[in-house]
Every structure is written in C-alpha cells, then in structure tokens.
C-alpha cells in the first residue's frame, strides 16, 4: 500500500523504489517515530481534532507495531520508502481507516526532523556517559602511577621529564572538552519541530507546547521553515564527534608506539590485542590502529553532511535523506571506540623499568640545567648556548651529563656547579609547581579535580 502516490497514474519503477528508499537504514528510527506518533495522536485528541476513541485505537495499533518490530515479526516492505510509511501502512492493516487520521496536521518533513532530534538527544546522552567512562579509566591509571616519571616528547624526541599521570590527564582534559561540546550540541538539539508541517505550519488548531512537554523537549521551534530544513544539530554533533575521534586517534598512536619493542612502555591486555597469521611472536595493537583508521569515517560523515546541506534552498529537498546513513555510521563508530577504549586503558600494564631507562637516555635535563644557570645570573639565551655546547660535547663522546668531567662544565661556563651537574628528574618535575605543571603537588590537584568532576 503506497500512501504517497495519489496524483500518479502508475506505480514507480522498481529501480526507482530501490534508489529512493531509505528504509534499509532509517528503520533504526522506529522507536522515535512511534514515540512521536503517539504524542501527536494524543495532541490531536486533546485538541478535539480526533476523538478519544480514535486516539485509543491509534495508540493500540502503534503499540502493536512496536512490539512486532522489537520481536522481529514486522515485515519491512520495499515499497514503503521509509520508516514513516512502513509504520503507517502497517497501521492501516491493523486498525483500518482510522490510521488515515494519524497524519493530520503533520508532514514527513517535520516528522523526520522530530525523529532525528529525538535520536540525537538519546545518542548525545549515551556518548557523554561513555566518554565519562573513558575519562574514569584515564584518571584511575593516572592515580595508580602518580609518582612515575616518564619522558615527555616534542617532535617525538625526548624533551623534558613529566609525570605519567600528567600525560594521562592531558587526554582527560581533551575528552572533557569533547564532553562539553556534546553537551552544548544537546542544547541546540533539544528543540521540538513537530507541528511545522511541510514548511508553513498547519491550518489546524494544534498545541505545539503540549507536544514539547509530552516529548521531553526544552523548547519549541520558532520558525516552521527553519524547523524542517535545519540539520545544524547533526552537523554540530558530527563536528564534536570528529574532534573526539581525533583525540582517540592521537591516544591510539601513543599506545601503538608505547607497546612497540623499541619503546616497551606498556603491555596491552591480551583481550585488547591480536596475533599474526604467520608470525607467532606478534602481539598487535589492532584496536588502537583501527581507531586511527576509523577516524576517517567520522571525518567523512562530517564532510558528507556539509556537502549535502551547502546548496539547499529552503526548505526540504530529498538530498536531506542522505543525512542518515553517514550519521548513523559515525555515531556507531564513536560509540564502539569509546566502549573498547575504557576497557583497554583500564587493563593496560605499565613497564616502569623501561620508562625509567628511557628517562636516562638522551639529555632530558638540558632545559633544567639552563634554567639553573639563569637563576645564577646568565640570560636565558646565554644559558641555552652553554648547555647546547655541553650537549654537543657529551653526545660526541657518548657520555651522559653526569659522566662529563666537571672541568669541561667549568670550561664552558664558570657558573656550572655540582648541583647543576647532578640535578635529578625528580627535582626537574618538582620544580614545575605552577598551576597546570607536572609537579607532584600539581598533578595531585589535577587528579582530585578530575575525580570531583566525574563524581568518583
């Protein structure tokens, strides 16, 4: 039963039906569509547009359809085009012509706008919950290792000593901003569009404020044309998702590096690694590698949606049907990434001996030596040059800073002394005691603030 071809003399070509159908992917909106239809029917009865008896009949039919879909007995027919028509066609089969009254005072345009907003609200809340679980794993790992010192890197070169906990909390803060972006997107998603009709509103005396309360929205949309054509809330969600996946991708690259033989800073739990089909010794960080690769899918969804919307005049075009498949895939990708990462971070083990050995490689205390010379009266540029010369000498002679003779130190600058020569990584960390720094006290404060924010 096709409910949209009243003015046509023949049925659509089978290939056209296949090409234009969104049912294979928008069927996941069934719960939101039924929820919206139930609220709409209730509003129609409240407004005396349909009778209470008709409302009860519609309610019974819609509930039956929901049970059929959830019990996998519902038959999705290609000719239905989309989830709206699939449900309405089945409603006719169950309750007869009363089903024809359900679509009074609404259009598929405001119907799908409602479904997508309800769906996005649900997913944004889920994403925020899952992201907080990842943050908890990071904070737990930081607290378990809050005195462990590791090399900090710039250009992937050993740069300055930092606490491992400080490193973990950097990602906590990245994900905190992601959480805030999702929460902010939720504010603009939380707008009720139903009642806007196809584009101009409706001639019926409907109660949109009642629908707003019934459906759990914060506010009602103010312009019917904008209501049915707006997909900014999807773009905002995808933008936040893309940034969040970028953060996961950055963390993924560190996990890949840290689990390599050359670094050996961590060991991933066997449940979060895979083997090789030919090399029995391999333990591959495939979860992290896939997170990097899947980031491109989320980026692609954002670019696809921007491209779909960029040339659309008001109000609705069938182009907008393409807002779903990429969107659903992006949300699914981010969701499973969050789920797997909270477990992978929680179970990974640190190799503190390897991390300590890495601290001793290179000349990681060079900046601290320069700072010590500044405190003795040199300008920073003079101190930078002096320690640079010291580094060249040490590297050419395959010596550590502590192995360089004191005579060489004094030859470069008379301001060098034994305290500068023998500065430790613990001192270097502790000296960075400003807000946001990597000192033990500052990191303890960061951990406490993070736990308070997460309610743990």
Instruction: Note the run of SSEs as H and E.
Output: HHHHHHEEHEHEHHEHHEHHHHHHH
Helix content bin: 55-70%
Low-confidence stretches: none
Average residue pLDDT:
94
Q: Kindly, what is the distance between the CA atoms of the first and last residues, rounded to a whole number of angstroms?
A: 55 Å
Shape: elongated
Oligomer type: single chain
Write the layout of secondary structure elements.
Elements: H1 14-20, H2 23-26, H3 30-46, H4 52-70, H5 83-95, H6 108-144, E1 149-154, E2 157-163, H7 164-189, E3 191-192, H8 208-214, E4 219-220, H9 224-229, H10 232-258, E5 266-267, H11 286-309, H12 325-347, E6 349-350, H13 352-359, H14 366-375, H15 380-396, H16 406-412, H17 418-421, H18 425-430, H19 440-454
Parallel strand pairs: 3-4
Antiparallel strand pairs: 1-2, 5-6
Q: Can you give a write-up of this model?
A:
The protein is elongated. Strand 1 and strand 2 form a beta hairpin. The protein has 456 residues and is mainly alpha-helical. The mean pLDDT is 94. It is built from 19 helices and 6 strands. A two-stranded antiparallel sheet has the order 1-2. It has a two-stranded parallel sheet with strand order 3-4. It has a two-stranded antiparallel sheet with strand order 5-6. Helix 10 runs antiparallel to helix 11.
Comma- or semicolon-separated keywords:
about 450 residues, mainly alpha, about 5% strand
């Amino acid at each position: 039963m096709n409910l949209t071809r009243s003015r046509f003399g023949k049925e659509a070509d089978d290939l056209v039906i296949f090409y234009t159908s969104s049912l294979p992917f928008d069927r996941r909106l069934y719960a939101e569509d039924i929820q919206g239809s139930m609220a709409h029917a209730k509003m129609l009865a409240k407004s005396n547009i349909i009778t209470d008896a008709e409302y009860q009949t519609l309610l019974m039919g819609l509930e039956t359809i929901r049970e059929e879909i959830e019990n996998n007995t519902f038959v999705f027919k290609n000719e239905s085009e989309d989830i709206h028509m699939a449900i309405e066609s089945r409603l006719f089969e169950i309750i007869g012509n009363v089903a024809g009254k359900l679509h009074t005072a609404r259009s598929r345009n405001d119907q799908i706008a409602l479904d997508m907003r309800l769906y996005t609200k649900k997913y944004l809340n889920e994403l925020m919950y899952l992201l907080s679980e990842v943050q908890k794993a990071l904070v737990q790992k930081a607290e378990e290792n809050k005195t462990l010192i590791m090399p900090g890197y710039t250009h992937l070169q050993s740069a300055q000593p930092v606490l491992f906990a400080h490193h973990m909390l950097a990602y906590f803060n990245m994900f905190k901003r992601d959480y805030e972006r999702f929460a902010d997107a939720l504010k603009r998603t939380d707008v009720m569009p139903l009642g806007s009709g196809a584009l101009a509103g409706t001639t019926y005396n409907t109660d949109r404020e009642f629908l707003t309360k019934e459906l759990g929205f914060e506010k009602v949309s103010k312009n019917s044309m904008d209501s049915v054509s707006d997909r900014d809330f999807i773009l905002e969600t995808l933008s936040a998702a893309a940034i969040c996946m970028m953060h996961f991708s950055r963390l993924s690259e560190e996990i890949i590096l840290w689990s390599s033989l050359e670094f050996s800073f961590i060991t991933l739990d066997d449940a979060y690694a895979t083997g090789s089909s030919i090399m029995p010794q391999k333990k591959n960080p495939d979860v992290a590698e896939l997170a990097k690769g899947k980031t491109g899918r989320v980026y692609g969804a954002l670019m696809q949606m921007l491209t779909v919307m960029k040339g659309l005049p008001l109000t609705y075009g069938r182009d907008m049907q393409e807002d779903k498949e990429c969107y659903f895939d992006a949300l699914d990708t981010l969701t499973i990434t969050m789920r797997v990462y909270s477990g992978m971070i929680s179970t990974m083990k640190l190799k503190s001996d390897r991390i300590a050995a890495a601290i001793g490689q290179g000349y990681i205390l060079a900046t601290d030596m320069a700072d010590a010379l500044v405190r003795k009266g040199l300008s920073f540029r003079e101190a930078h040059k002096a320690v640079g010369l010291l580094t060249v000498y040490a590297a050419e002679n395959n010596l550590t800073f502590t192995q360089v003779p004191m005579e060489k130190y004094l030859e470069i600058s008379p301001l060098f002394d034994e305290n500068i020569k023998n500065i430790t990584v613990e001192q270097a960390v502790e000296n960075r005691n400003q807000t946001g720094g990597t000192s033990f006290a500052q990191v303890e404060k960061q951990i406490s603030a993070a736990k308070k924010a997460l309610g743990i």
